[in-house]
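Could you help me review a protein record that somebody else here produced? This is what I was given.
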Amino acid sequence: MAARLRCSDSSKEELRIYYNSRGNLLAHGVISSPTPRWTPDPFPGRFVLDRLS
């Protein structure tokens, strides 16, 4: 295994990113909006008639 060499013992630059809300995380593409697993279907398969009217 080859030895890894560094130019210095410490980092020359440090980058910190702060987000203050879920909306900002979504806007910056850090997280994606969740996709619904299913969509509610009030009439599965067919339309149901109202027989009381």
Notes: The longest helix spans residues 22-27. The two ends are 82 Å apart (CA to CA).
